[in-house]
Amino acid sequence: MLPQTFSDEADLERWLCEPSDALIEFCRSLRGRLLILGAGGKMGPTLAVRAQRAIHLANSEATVTAVSRFTNSAARTWLENHGVETYAADLLDRTHVDSLPEADHVIYLVGSKFGTRQNPSRTWAVNTIAPTYCLQRYQTQPIVALSTGNVYPLVSIDSSGSAESDSVGPIGEYANAALARERLFEYFSIENKTPVVLIRLNYAVEARYGVLVDLAIKVHSKQPIDLTQGYFNCIWQGDANDAIIRALPMATSPANVLNLTGDSVLSVRSVADRFGEYFGRDVTFIGQEATTALLNDSSLLHRHFGKPSVDLERMIGWIADWVQRDQPLLGKPTHFEVRDGGF
């Protein structure tokens, strides 16, 4: 049973780490070390603990090791307190990568997006050099690599979004660097026969960050809502992490591709109005919806794994309650409204 609200951050994190029955069942057959590269970001810690809990509940002998620079020591402590082994490494340093522990399965979460406009060279380095080193280190292990829907072009708002078979068309330096990262995974998957599945995500949300949080904050603080980027997709972070782990058997050579997001196209206007109802606010809108948006069609993934367990109304209710009670936020806007690729 899903909760009505989250009492505090510990309660929120507990639910973000709660594995699905399907994930527990998958982990019954999981063996060896599951290595999570880039586990110190927004999604990594709860993904690692979710995997660890599923393994425990499945009575599996698999283990989870989380790798990050761990510039935030609190994240490392939190992981270790939840039973996850940690390993500090800079994946831009070849000697660090070569010293990483052996692994049987790899989840790759490393990426750089925000700050690209100010420092594009670092974005390209993180998104190309780090995967090259890691793919040379782990040549035979199945890899789930997190990518982004930003590799697609803007598409008609009357469509269901870009499908995996559609042409890519990245806009801006970040999106092009993300596509370069995908091409490296594809190259090494063919060259070394490394099983790979690329997960193109649009957008993960939880109560402290995400597109829905961005909209909730603006509505609650009576800021106008720009409608130009008028439509989007999103998925609850717990559901996203569940799917990422369960995608391991779908890694193939040549690389496989899967879109990951919710099961519908969402309207900025409608979502903002719904937050307005929760907050007792009249919502002010500016601009007009463009005829295109960044949209993903993840029906292929839903056919394999089923639809997400958390629907839009539940997410809106959780986030409205969280924002209204002035609970902690990560302070990391998604900038989903950006249409020129300048992050």
Automatic annotation (TrEMBL):
UniProt superkingdom: Bacteria
Occurrences of domain NAD-dependent epimerase/dehydratase (ranges): 35-202
InterPro entries, sorted: Epimerase_deHydtase, Lipid_A_modif_metabolic_enz, NAD(P)-bd_dom_sf
Protein name: NAD(P)-dependent oxidoreductase
Source species of the chain: Roseiconus lacunae
